[in-house]
Amino acid sequence: MPLPHLKISRGVDSCPRFRRMRGIRRRIxxxxxxxxxxxxxxxxxxxxxxxxxxxxxxxxxxVGAPSPAAVDEFKKAGMEEVRPHVLxxxxxxxxxxxxxSLPELNRRVLExxxxxxxxxxxxxxxxTGLTSRDGTTGLYDITLRASILDEPLSTFLxxxxxxxxxxxxxxxxxxxxxxGTDAVTYVLLHESTHVVDFACGITAQPxxxxxxxxxxxxxxMVLELADSIAAKTYFRGGSRVPMGQAAAVYDALAxxxxxxxxxxxEPQEDLAELVAWREIQKEHHGGLVITVxxxxxxxxxxxxxxxxxxxxxxxxxxxxxxxxxGPCSGLSS
Length: 333
What we know:
Blueprint: H1 18-37, H2 41-45, H3 48-60, H4 68-76, E1 83-84, H5 89-101, H6 104-113, E2 114-121, E3 129-133, E4 140-145, H7 153-161, E5 165-166, E6 173-178, H8 183-200, H9 223-226, E7 241-242, H10 246-253, H11 267-283, E8 288-293, E9 299-303, H12 309-323
Parallel strand pairs: 2-4, 5-7
Antiparallel strand pairs: 1-2, 3-4, 6-8, 8-9
Helix pairs in contact: 1-3, 3-5, 3-6, 6-8, 8-11
């Protein structure tokens, strides 16, 4: 996610089996040589499984150490203990599986635009990571908190949501339940969509396309939405809302086209959240439920953002985006 919302939410790993690594290196070399001279259309002529495996092999070759610039950005955000995380063999296999599960469009753009995918330790539990542009290559680095590799999605989401509220003695609690997948899949769906967005200019003019009738500019919503309490939270630069007003926040959110409170932050987060949750719903058969309870554990409210009418209508736009076959203009460089 872009740096203003660095989640407080780029090490090459060794393989114990030399023969397997030698085979992987050979496949990566073949793929890399082919990318240099074959037109993009060639990938489309391969069988689906073969093309996907080739894309994932290329992406796995870019899993490495975080860039110095990314580490500096973490430290500027107060995370002085940040350090590279070397993936274990099981972790590496998990990352490979997650990359293979990404939408074809996201994989295709990452193949062209990803510089490094890295994991770091020393980031607080409520943090996630950073997607940033490499100043030398113009490609993108995705740097993630390593502990999300083993984190349940609901834990991740609930911890992130706590930043919206402040304790007020009411005893009210907010729980966010995500099903169908895990935290690292959700995060890579979200972050890879940022790369798609930046490369293809999807939110470059937010008042059009996905943002029509929602965003007036890169920072401002249309007036009808800007006055909502859901659009005045910590994620929009506002103050933390007293926990006693949590139900009012989600009642208001249900009347908007946003799939989460975090999606209200800016057009880029709106798009990334929309794509991530549509994929979780459609491909992982998952869901999203927000529950507010009182001090005695009684449910005060329950919301399912994927079923909000305005959100459901926008999912059709996501389906059209992810179904497109041709590369966007930003992939030519």
